[in-house]
Amino acid sequence: MKKIRVGIAGASGYAGAELLRLVALHPQLELATVTSEKSAGTAVGSVFPSLAGLVSHSFQSLAPETLLADADAVFLALPHTKSLDPVAACMKAGKPVVDLSADYRLKNPAVYEQWYQTPHRHAHLLKDAVYGLPELHRDAIAKARLVASPGCYPTAAILQLAPLFAHDLVQPDTIVIDAKSGISGAGRSPALLYHFPEAHESLEPYKIGQHRHIPEIEQELNALLPGNPASNKPASMVAFTPHLVPMNRGILSTAYCRLKHPAALADLRALYRTYYKGASFVRLSDDIVPNPRYIKGSNYCDIGVYADQRAGWVVTVAAVDNLVKGAAGQAIQAMNLMLALPEDMGLTAPAAYP
Amino acid sequence: MKKIRVGIAGASGYAGAELLRLVALHPQLELATVTSEKSAGTAVGSVFPSLAGLVSHSFQSLAPETLLADADAVFLALPHTKSLDPVAACMKAGKPVVDLSADYRLKNPAVYEQWYQTPHRHAHLLKDAVYGLPELHRDAIAKARLVASPGCYPTAAILQLAPLFAHDLVQPDTIVIDAKSGISGAGRSPALLYHFPEAHESLEPYKIGQHRHIPEIEQELNALLPGNPASNKPASMVAFTPHLVPMNRGILSTAYCRLKHPAALADLRALYRTYYKGASFVRLSDDIVPNPRYIKGSNYCDIGVYADQRAGWVVTVAAVDNLVKGAAGQAIQAMNLMLALPEDMGLTAPAAYP
Amino acid sequence: MKKIRVGIAGASGYAGAELLRLVALHPQLELATVTSEKSAGTAVGSVFPSLAGLVSHSFQSLAPETLLADADAVFLALPHTKSLDPVAACMKAGKPVVDLSADYRLKNPAVYEQWYQTPHRHAHLLKDAVYGLPELHRDAIAKARLVASPGCYPTAAILQLAPLFAHDLVQPDTIVIDAKSGISGAGRSPALLYHFPEAHESLEPYKIGQHRHIPEIEQELNALLPGNPASNKPASMVAFTPHLVPMNRGILSTAYCRLKHPAALADLRALYRTYYKGASFVRLSDDIVPNPRYIKGSNYCDIGVYADQRAGWVVTVAAVDNLVKGAAGQAIQAMNLMLALPEDMGLTAPAAYP
Amino acid sequence: MKKIRVGIAGASGYAGAELLRLVALHPQLELATVTSEKSAGTAVGSVFPSLAGLVSHSFQSLAPETLLADADAVFLALPHTKSLDPVAACMKAGKPVVDLSADYRLKNPAVYEQWYQTPHRHAHLLKDAVYGLPELHRDAIAKARLVASPGCYPTAAILQLAPLFAHDLVQPDTIVIDAKSGISGAGRSPALLYHFPEAHESLEPYKIGQHRHIPEIEQELNALLPGNPASNKPASMVAFTPHLVPMNRGILSTAYCRLKHPAALADLRALYRTYYKGASFVRLSDDIVPNPRYIKGSNYCDIGVYADQRAGWVVTVAAVDNLVKGAAGQAIQAMNLMLALPEDMGLTAPAAYP
Q1: Which residues are within 8 A (CB) of A27 and not within 5 positions of it... i.e. 6 or more apart?
Q2: Full domain range(s) for residue D73
Q3: Beta strand A4-9 with A73-76: parallel, antiparallel or unpaired?
Q4: C10 and C135 share a domain?
Q5: Alpha-carbon distances of C351 from A297, C297, C347, rounded to whole Å
Q6: What 3-state class would DSSP assign to D73?
Q7: Do D195 and A190 touch (CB under 8 A)?
Q8: In principle, which of A109, B167, C157, D337 could form an S-S bond with D142, CB 3.0–4.6 Å?
Q9: At A224, which CATH number?
Q10: One domain for residues A233 and A105
């Protein structure tokens, strides 16, 4: 079978490096073109020595028409607001596109403008965009031409709370999501906050209640409420605090909520098992608490459900690799679906431990 | 002025090492005797090479009478349940004692027995014990002969929430404390969970809703409620999840709650400033979010207050060094008060940065 | 094609976890049996949660006859001195075996006894054992039934110096190998030295001039000298100091030597390129200095050659993943050769970066 | 006694932060003025939150005359080549100055120009400059008005080899210094190499044989050779490779050499003890190998001497904190001597462990 040729735009960051790695390992995908503005003209193996000898391409400048001429399908790993036009170009050319930015994730363009300080100049395309979380939107993704791949924090937060929302179990105004991320989540551009001596032996809460991933978490969770699929108005709002933790990769999200009615832990866990039946990349863990060390480099999302009966809280813990299930891996998982390939193709490798 | 001679029992762990370091730096304290069962007979400088040339003592076996004969005042850094009798011996000998274990922290012996699976065989002494958080109990500590020094997590959690409780602002059943600790908080005994390759590139939630520090947090916070000082029955219960983070030292505690009535952020911050006026070791930080890197090795507790007006939560962040303000430093701070020395004597050194 | 069934003995350590991971990814190998004394009866996914859902076996106790009945080929990842008998059993059963211990690496049983304090009770098998470094002994490995897979440090040290020895360029008594290893190299058994707070913000030289990997480095390098293939008496001895570095994986070896005759750097580099022509897993790097971050989790060995013309030294730097090219990956590379599979089958995945 | 007022120029880097911390702790020094170009106008506590509440000054722009008007003595923590003129201004004003840059370390201006690509426009002052390693030049420092404080690597390298050179024991052309540094040694300016995800799980050799600290190591060691004090021509050259290690602080230097005549280890160690008799900050360690974790945040230099009798090498290991004994602490140690204060005043605090 002839391989499908893919183009990757904006690949000199960490998510881009992971796309390059995962495409290189994928049995049915083949790299056509890779772009980066700051590394244009440089060999991939010079920017990412890990790929030396494995990827022979050089980075090019982004020119959508060239990218599209060469590629059967496209991944866009551009910064937020920079994907607006390239997505439109891909759509026009009829090429399947997975956009890793936030530009097409929010259904309501006013919400996008509010959080990203940019008007959404292709708002008419939003109805075609499917939020790229296959565990929630598998069928829609398979039919989509445009997938808006989720942010790293939302991947963990939505997956750990979705079964509770789908059964309308959660008391509104009781949801706290305390998320912790490895520093690669901040990207590859040096800055004081990510300078090794500042970030090491350090633990940095940031953008308390103000992180841009909040609206997509609320959009997706509230859409799961029975009888509420089409509403964009949040029924629940979440307290969300991200923290930078001194590790390279991985997100651990600890979410707290109170239930509308008491429930036994065993019943809650059964409900999660049913909800994620058949989801190749969700692993439910009872005795072993999820931890980034079990999933780093892999596309798995480990979820644990716990109950603090004494104080009346349900606590869920989710771990994902921010660059794989939280970015490049999830994008390929969606692309597999769009291309009618097996959903898990090229993505089943486990974490190297330790 | 003649120095006051102190004995330290159980000093071959990390809190003990810090007691040795801080006593060596203290202008009015002098080490009389130091004990450790597993290192008895070994020079301090062999167990802790950082102290080589600075502390000339060797560890001895714990024999309370010898310890007491030699020392004017005593620090007990023994494991939980192992301080019950030595404290009684110190009390009998009339020597001021600061106990770093949990054995005399909880006012209600039934609560102690429930969480520590051990009957409290000296329950009559509990009325003499003062919870050793000087920011809350300065005067009582100064008059006490027995101080029960707080746990590391409770130091952060209580200090970050105390002003809100003292003004009865918090809605019960809305308190979530998500705490993160460096691995030294787990002590110095090797185990798989703390083995470097397991703990590095790792983030481990543990004892979700079940950590033994919960009852002292609830005891101290509820006691602050106006009109409720004597009650041991928790008015509020807290959801508490500790996490192990790949750093050596430091606790970062992120606490969430909802208020009974809306409040402006500026008013909340003013309330904290008033509450902690004169507290040498509490630093309130508005623009710079507290981070363990600013306080490691020091006795400071940095606190930041934030408001998520959109979702209706108050978020407070506290950072302490688990071994200093969370253990040895706080114990010395209390001892200074008991000995009528300046509260901050020997404790003002800032963190070495980075 | 029917898969080849492999047994793995002693797989509850880190090298064992890597063997399990790499076998799971290998297109032609299939796990038959896996043993561990301390984890016998436990599911692989409970000991290594990274493999949950991917490896369904449970650990068994080692019983060589069962292992051999079930498996077409065997990997032994047992501690040093514990492989002596199992290897003999495999040989008797005629099953190809790759032994990851040191037990069959040294040609001279007296040298083995001196460094491992154990008489070699199967010394007659040593003539059948091939030192499992495919870059040096590819043909012999392909014909062997017993491969003694190299230690992690020797893999780096031998590969970085082999071309110089093969051309007899090195002045004896000038070779210094300063090696640095991630902590996983110390294994998975907790001990104070590897306790996170001790090993973090720490850098530990150990066994200075006394590490057991020294004799195999000297054996292999001296055997490369023209005219000296059969001698076991070292022509050169090396100064070798290993260090523990606060990272999980990876070895960086910095080797220094003086040449018998001056040589231009370009000529030296050309000589390395020629020597490693066709070696799939050796990557020569000129501008980018080898670093564990480029090879972690992969089977590559990156080598850089540098000249300090001013002071008269050649400095070579090699990076390998101690658990892959330094252990499990190399063992599979040798097994591929023994089984007449492509040498790089199942081993080409690059490092996940960062 | 009235405190001595000191000015610090260029204090917004890590060495500057340490100078501020150590001056704050010093019983006889008091901060007069502190300058920084990039942080001028900002409060010290905003740039270094660790010092909030402890240092009330704001950074100013450097104006030598103001600095000198205000201060009794001066520390210059400016970048290399930027101290040339300010030192001259201090000398003219007759104020004692400790310069932490390399500008006055090398006796031979031609060597300076060669390694720093800048002509030394105040070469006539070099004769007045004393190399600020008190263990070698105590008396000269006490009489000096200009002290050139050593680099971090040379502090370790010179101290670990000095006794061997002073007794002319070392074979020339056999000296290898393999040095490892925490990332704070690279300064506080963000760059890709020091970006957390690049520097973590990473180990980077750099400037192999080309680091600017080489000439001062050679200058100082060769000057110790009997009969050779005045010569600037190196009798020995060293192979020197620095490495960046994923820790915040600390240098570990492993040095190898061959002796002119065989010597027993006990004799070598005795020789070191004699040489460093009375040196408050050198700790000789036999059984416990020096490790940065024992000295971080402190002014101690731990040294261990080992012999590889089999292969014929002496291996010495030295550990210093690059920012304290390798920079700010050593500068204050020299200033104490210049000001006729006790050499160790304000500097005896041990490392916080772990």
Answers
A1: A345, A346
A2: 4-150+325-338
A3: parallel
A4: yes
A5: 9, 5, 11
A6: strand
A7: yes
A8: D337
A9: 3.30.360.10
A10: no
For D188, the enclosing helix (H) or strand (E) is none
Residue C136: both structure tokens together: 């040096």
CA distance A52 to C350: 9
Task: Report pLDDT for C232.
Answer: 52
Residues B189 and B299 in one domain: yes
Nearest-neighbour CA in chain A from B6: distance (Å): 32
Within a domain: residue B343? no
Co-location of B333 and B261 in the same domain: no
Q: D194 and D285 share a domain?
A: yes
- Judged by DSSP in three states, B214 sits in helix
How many beta-carbon pairs below 8 A join chains A and C?
Answer: 92
Please state the φ and ψ torsions of residue B204, each to the nearest 5 degrees: -115, 110
Q: Which amino acid is at B200?
A: H
Structure tokens of A166?
A: 């789908």
User: Of C238, C80, C263, nearest to C156 (Cα)?
Assistant: C238
Let me know if residue C348 belongs to a domain: no
Question: In this structure, is residue C350 part of a structural domain?
Answer: no
Look at chain D and report how many structural domains it folds into.
2
Each residue's pLDDT tens digit, C117-133 = 999 999 999 999 999 99
Is ipTM beyond 0.85? yes
Identify the CATH number of the domain in which residue C141 sits.
3.40.50.720
Classify burial at B122, counting beta carbons within 10 Å of its beta carbon; exposed 0-12, middle 13-18, buried 19 or more.
Answer: middle
D260: how many CB neighbours lie within 10 A of its CB? Answer: 13
Q: Where are the alpha helices (DSSP H) in C43-123?
A: 44-47, 64-70, 84-93, 109-116
Residues C45 and C137 in one domain: yes
Q: Which residues neighbour C203 within 8 Å (Cβ) at sequence distance 6 or greater?
A: C243, C244, C245, C246, D180, D245, D247, D250, D252, D291, D292, D293, D319
Cis status of the peptide bond prior to A234, with omega within 30 of 0: no
Q: Which of B165, B280, B168, B141 is nearest to B218 (CA)?
A: B165
User: Mind telling me how many Å the CA of B183 is from chain C's nearest CA?
Assistant: 6
Residue A257 annotated among the catalytic residues of the structure? no
A215 and A121 belong to one structural domain: no
Q: Which residue of D has its CA nearest to C246?
A: D246
Q: Which of D21, D248, D288 has its CB closest to that of B49?
A: D288
What residues in D contact C319, CB-CB < 8 Å?
A: 203
- What is the distance between the alpha carbons of residues D263 and D267, in angstroms, rounded to a whole number? 7
Q: List chain A residues with CB under 8 Å of D195.
A: 188-190, 194-196
Inform me whether the C-beta atom of residue C193 falls under 8 Å from chain D C-beta atoms.
no
Name chain D contacts of C315, Cβ cutoff 8 Å: 208-209, 239, 241
Model confidence pLDDT, tens digit, residues D322-345:
999 999 999 999 999 999 999 999
- Tell me the backbone φ, ψ of residue D341, rounded to 5 degrees: -90, 165
Residues D28 and D77 in one domain: yes
The closest CB to that of A202, out of B174, B209, B291, belongs to B291
The CA distance from C313 to B254, in Å, is 54
Q: How far, in Å, CA of A186 to CA of A189, rounded?
A: 8
Q: Is residue B338 a contact partner of residue B142, using CB atoms and an 8 Å limit?
A: yes
The arithmetic mean of pLDDT across residues C205-233, rounded, is 88
A350 inside domain = no
- Which residue, among D156, D2, D24, D15, has the nearest Cα to D75 in the 3D structure? D15
Half-sphere exposure of C84 (CA within 13 A, CB side): 15
